[in-house]
Amino acid sequence: MGITVQNITGSTAMVIWPKMASCVDSFYSVMYHPNWNSMLSSYSRKSFQKEERVPTTRSSFVVENLAPLTTYIVCVTCQSANPSSDQCRVFNTLERDPASASNTKKELALGIWLTSSILLLIIAAILLYGCLHLLCRRRRERLQGRNGTSEQDQGKVWTKSVTCTSEELGQQSQLMQDTEEKHPGSIQLATIIENPSACKEPVMPTSESQERVPTTGQCSAI
């Protein structure tokens, strides 16, 4: 059949075959398998690990994802038919090429960087949430403390005002007592002036005011 394998690398190989007149309006089957042993393996479709279908308009196919330093067999048939020995070729892949190795390292480094970045973002988000929660809690405690202090201050002011009022009442009472002790008749005179009817009844003055206040019926003179 004239199948050839070209551009072999550590992971890819290009398979080329001539066009078949019997495969018009159909497809080609490209089958390949690693570690081929012609003594133990048969040329049946079940013996092949991979199978690719290629349109009849094409006469080549690039086999990918091969293992480096491995012996492969590749067969090309028409319409998934079982291949024969003249429709197959054996080839060996090369070592892993530096470009693919560097690409693999770059992909690994990129994956590690993305994973670490995501973890750092998660940790930063957790720390930010904790800080905001702590700040809100402290602010709430401060507001509660201010409210409690204002209530205490109001209570102190009210207590102070009550105390002041009591002291003023006590002072007024003491002043009235002092005035009564110094001028005992003045209160009675004021009472008589305000209530003239009280003059009809005799007023018994104290010993100190007997000379000043009459005992009976002298309201007009007073």
Automatic annotation (TrEMBL):
Transmembrane regions: 110-136
Q: Which InterPro entries match?
A: FN3_dom, FN3_sf, Ig-like_fold
Q: In this protein, which residues make up the domain named Fibronectin type-III?
A: 1-96
Alphabetically ordered keywords of this record: Membrane, Transmembrane, Transmembrane helix
Protein name (record):
FNDC9 protein
Q: Where is this region: Disordered?
A: 201-222
- Mind telling me which PROSITE patterns this protein's record contains? FN3
Q: Where does the source fall among the domains of life?
A: Eukaryota
The biased composition feature labelled Polar residues covers 206-222
